[in-house]
Amino acid sequence: MYEHIALKLQLSPQELERESLRLFLRHQLRLVESQLFSLAHKYGVHTIAELDKLVQNGAIHEEDAFEDFFEFDYLESTRDMLRASLQELV
User: Fold this and answer.
1) Does residue 81 surpass a pLDDT of 80?
2) CA–CA separation, 55 vs 52, rounded Å?
3) % of residues, the chain, pLDDT over 90
4) Distance between CA 26 and CA 36 in Å, rounded?
5) Domains in the chain: boundaries
6) pLDDT at 87 over 90
7) CA triplet 81, 72, 25: central angle to 5 degrees?
8) What is the pLDDT of residues 60-80, one digit of tens each?
9) CA-wise closest residue to 43 among 77, 18, 66
10) 8 Å CB contact between 51 and 65
């Protein structure tokens, strides 16, 4: 299937595969970054470290931010992995 479509687009199957992967990774990165933005906006922070400081200082109750804290951490890790994967494609 890749070969047929690549031929129509005048690309090698490898070029089509690489560009498809790049587009997929960029799309995933945009989704993750939008989720991170929403969480950051909710707490008025930019990073998980800033959120942690607010919890440590008592500005936010730990039980109120518990699930969001882990989601924020997961999303930051996913963002970093996606960025690294995109760099590998260069």
Assistant:
1) yes
2) 5
3) 86
4) 15
5) 22-88
6) yes
7) 30
8) 988 889 999 999 999 999 999
9) 66
10) yes
Size (the chain), residues: 90
The string of pLDDT tens digits covering residues 7-41 is 999 999 999 999 999 999 999 999 999 999 999 99
Residue 42 contacts residue 72 (beta carbons within 8 Å): no
- Tokens 């939008």 correspond to what residue? 34
- The Cβ-side half-sphere exposure at 28, using a 13 Å CA radius, reads 18
Q: Give the C-alpha separation, 25 to 85, whole Å.
A: 8
Q: How far apart are CA 52 and CA 43, in angstroms?
A: 11
25 within 8 A of 82, measured Cβ to Cβ: yes
Q: What are the structure tokens assigned to 16, written together?
A: 């089509």
Residues 6+ apart with CB under 8 A from 16: 2, 5, 6, 9
The pTM of this model reads: 0.85
